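tool_call predict_complex ligand=adenosine-5'-diphosphate
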Amino acid sequence: MSKDILYAEELSVSFDGFKALDINHFELIEGELRVIIGPNGAGKTTFMDVICGKTKPDTGRVIMNGENLVKMKEKQIVDAGVGRKFQKPSIFPSLTVYENFMLAIRMNRSVWKSLFYKTNKAHNARIQEVARIVGLSDSMEKTAAYLSHGQKQWLEIGIVLIQDPKLLLIDEPAAGMTDEETHKTGELLMSLAGTHTIIVIEHDMEFVRQIAKTVTVLSEGKVLVEGPMEQVQNDPRVIECYLGSPE
Ligand code: ADP
Ligand code: MG
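tool_result ok
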């Protein structure tokens, strides 16, 4: 039977009296790949910020595997198995791909602990495995600064994957990518679903169509519509909220 990995209830965030997020109910099944769409300013990034502990909500709870993430610090949330890839790159450009991965292992307490008593061989094996998953096996010795934009994004996804998160949060991965890179990213995310639960925020509708099963549409902080992509993209409420947005 499929089980919930995460649910959120009565979640609200206000910035100076402005309600940026107001989610009554949201839930994810283990192994699913959920896409969140919605016009600019809809609260998508804020929702991810709340899940990973960067922003504390005014009300509500986010329960993952029985634990309320709202009560935890960012580091504890990482240890609980939430990995977040931010929009802005945070790799070390002067280090090689391999060194970036190694640093990611060293900097993550829980991974470091689990691999600490093992040899460098174990670290190396994990790095090779993740590099293969994100398609960077042939670029290990390359300085990160010289990777293509798409490769940099895959390196970042790999750095998050190194910690083996149960829940992966990815904000606009296709932004700035070529069509080919975007397509590859879609394939990568689909290959990770099942063994990981994933939330992706994305604007690129072709990309959304490529990967989406269930789509959640946020508008003015609220869940406007949720359902299969075919249904959501033809929903008049969704069309209207996009037409009404400045984009
Ligand atoms: P999205 O990711 O859907 O484009 P955001 O979650 O970034 O939307 O923003 C939702 C709303 O909250 C926007 O109106 C934005 O200006 C506002 N907002 C987001 N973060 C902050 C913040 N730290 N301080 C004040 N307002 C914010
Ligand atoms: Mg955003």
